[in-house]
Write a structure and sequence with these properties.
The complex is a heterodimer of chains A (310) and B (296). Chain A is an all-alpha fold and 310 residues long. In chain A, 79% of the residues lie in helices and 0% in strands. Chain A has helices at 2-31, 36-40, 48-57, 64-76, 90-125, 130-144, 147-161, 174-203, 206-213, 218-255, 261-271, 274-302, 304-309. The radius of gyration of chain A is 24 Å and the shape is globular. The termini of chain A are close together. The model of chain A has no long low-confidence stretch (mean pLDDT 80). Chain B has 296 residues and is an all-alpha fold. In chain B, α2 (29-47) packs across α11 (260-288), α5 crosses α7 and α7 packs antiparallel against α9. Residues 1-11, 16-25 and 292-296 of chain B have low confidence and may be disordered. Classes of the chains: A mainly alpha (310), B mainly alpha (296). The interface between A and B is large, with 57 and 50 residues.
């Protein structure tokens, strides 16, 4: 029963976080200067009456708490408001473009895991040798390169010069290769460091000495026992990263002209379309919180020590 | 005998750990020095661009637009005939300002929130840290983006947006450190001889808790520069004659097929700067955290 209570408590905390992020997003848009009504109308033809009418129509003449309650009730009913530019409903637009972003995010996470775990393990096994040195340098480059630059470099090399992959678009598996490489490289940088540190930590544990003492091959010790234990912190990093990776799609979808929710935000910024920005940021916060909750729960299932501590 | 030794170590306020930077040499020294030289060079570019840039950033050599890197234009020219090397040198200023100013503002606010939460505890701790947790439900990039979009384009608005997004990290580090330091015996010892609470805070707690914040700020500088460049790449910066590196990249993006150099060099500059800052941050972290450095 204790574990059910614990899970319920975590879900409740997640709901509170989501509500908090809704308040935060609403405050950012509401409290900061700039009048959305004025930016919607063409200043050369707009009369004060038109401004007032539009303000009333959008409910922007109401006090802060009324506006917030309205927005909150609408969100509960699945209504994220409408675009200021073309009056499209925000939520259907987000849901329509979300699969492309999700696919890119998962592909990037996969790239991060493959590159990250591979070099992280090599780096720990060959500690302070030149392989370790190169793996760590790759990790450093991963976290230091802006994704919009690595994306442009990939386009230059693989699309412009070699013509292997398309430079833009979101149809077919070929279009996802370059963006996921570019985005996944950032996550790989973090994972290389994490896997290396936790591998080195595990290697010094007494049970590794015991395994070696009973004559197990070094390969079995490393891959079957050390790696498995070292992967737990890496899983957390990967899980937490998925949220950041998804946020990273804003830039990368722009670079590769992919359709996705990141692209919607980037376009909305250009058009000063605040309800759309608000909607996508809030939607991402929900996804982020849900992913963190799942990582948290899976963490306690994978690691017996955490499970028993409950 | 044992008692005496204990009192002595207990009453001794630890020395500021800066002296340790000079010891603890390792293989990666080459990279530390390389990183230092790159950072100093880029700061020089930002301070005195006129001395280093071969051309004015606004000079348009209409006879050689979009020319590949050559002896006259080392990094080539763009579609207006502007010298890319000069643009990169002049662009360093805004890119550095965004990074440094946002780390200073974010670190200061985060540090104040974190030390207040850690030092006072109780209801202040709960309220401040709930606020921080809510800030953390939105990924840093998106939070910065929403704030920058609401504030409108501008250099200072980008700084504010990046700073706000970095507050949670600093606040959490400072709070943890404050909580651990305030329970040390030398703090109790100092209190027992009647030291004023403010003096304890200023002389014992702050000097001993700022080092993780400094490390965090150095590592955070890299990501702040990246987020700032990303925002300006998305068009949230100021459109002006001398673009920063992010804006320069976004301008060159349209000319990828005819001029690879316009995008490549500003991006290389960002990468080198962030890489150097990260190397220095790693070194600082290893120096200040013996637990990690022992493992390496």
């Amino acid at each position: 029963m204790a574990i059910v209570n614990k899970i319920l408590l975590k879900i409740l905390t997640a709901l509170v976080s989501i509500f908090g992020s809704l308040v935060l997003v609403f405050c950012i848009i509401y409290l900061l200067p700039g009048d959305p009504v004025l930016s919607m109308l063409d200043p050369s033809v707009a009369t004060p009456e038109m401004v007032e009418n539009l303000r009333k129509e959008l409910g922007l003449d109401q006090p802060f708490y009324v506006q917030f309650l309205d927005y909150f009730m609408n969100v509960l009913h699945g209504d994220f408001g409408q675009s200021l530019v073309n009056r499209d409903q925000v939520l259907p637009k987000i849901l329509e473009h979300f699969p492309a972003t999700l696919a890119l995010t998962l592909a990037s996470a996969l790239v991060s895991i493959i590159i990250g775990v591979f070099f992280g393990v090599l780096s720990a096994i060959y500690r302070n040798k030149w392989i370790d040195f190169i793996a760590r340098l790759i990790g450093l480059f991963g976290i230091s390169m802006p994704t919009f630059w690595s994306g442009i470099l990939l386009i230059l090399i693989f699309s412009v010069f070699l013509n292997w992959f398309p430079a833009m678009g979101s149809d077919g598996w070929k279009t996802i290769v370059l963006p996921s490489l570019s985005l996944g490289f950032v996550g790989a940088g973090l994972i290389i460091r994490m896997v290396r540190t936790s591998m080195l930590e595990v290697i010094n544990e007494p049970f590794i000495v015991t395994l070696r003492a009973k004559g197990l091959s070094e390969r079995a010790v490393m891959y079957r026992h050390a790696l498995r234990n070292a992967l737990i912190p890496a899983i957390t990093i990967i899980g937490l990263n998925i949220g950041e990776l998804m946020a990273g799609t804003v830039v990368i979808e722009t670079v590769f002209s992919r359709q996705g929710i990141g692209r919607i935000v980037a376009d909305a910024i250009m058009a000063k379309d605040l309800p759309v920005i608000q909607g996508v940021v809030f939607f991402s916060a929900i996804v982020f919180v849900v992913i963190n909750l799942l990582v948290d729960l899976s963490y306690s299932i994978i690691d017996p020590r955490v499970r028993r501590a409950n | 005998m044992k008692e005496v030794v204990n009192t002595k170590t207990v009453l001794q306020v630890p020395k500021w750990k800066f002296a340790r930077l000079h010891t603890n040499f390792s293989v990666s020294n080459f990279f530390i020095y390389g990183a230092g030289i790159i950072v100093i060079f880029i700061i020089t570019c930002a301070l005195f661009p006129k001395w280093l840039a071969p051309y004015s950033p606004t000079f348009m050599d209409t006879a050689s637009t979009l020319s590949a890197p050559n002896s006259a234009h080392w990094f080539g020219t763009d579609y207006f005939g502007r010298d890319v090397l000069s643009l990169v040198i002049y662009g360093s200023r805004d890119s550095l300002i965004i990074g440094i100013a946002s780390v200073l503002i974010g670190g200061l606010i985060g540090g104040i929130i974190g030390s207040a939460a850690g030092y006072f505890g109780g209801i202040i701790d709960v309220v401040f840290m709930r606020f921080i947790e809510i800030l953390m439900t939105i990924p840093a990039v998106l939070l910065a983006l929403a704030i920058a979009a609401a504030l409108g384009p501008g250099l200072f608005n980008i700084v504010l947006a990046v700073a706000a997004a970095s507050i949670p990290g600093y606040a959490r580090v400072m709070r943890g450190q404050m909580i651990s330091i305030k329970k040390r015996q030398y703090v109790d010892a100092s209190r027992s001889i009647g030291t004023h609470e403010w003096k304890i805070f200023l002389w014992h707690l702050l000097p001993n808790s700022w080092s993780p914040l400094l490390v965090m700020a150095t590592i955070g500088l890299g990501s702040s520069i990246l987020i700032g460049a990303g925002l300006s790449f998305l068009g949230l910066g100021v459109i002006k004659e001398i673009p920063d590196w992010g804006a320069l990249l976004s301008q060159g993006r349209g000319y990828l097929t005819v001029g690879w150099w316009i995008c490549t060099f500003p991006g290389l500059a960002i990468t080198l700067l962030v890489l150097s800052v990260n190397i220095m941050g790693d070194k600082l972290r290893d120096t200040f955290d013996p637990k990690i450095s022992k493992k390496r």
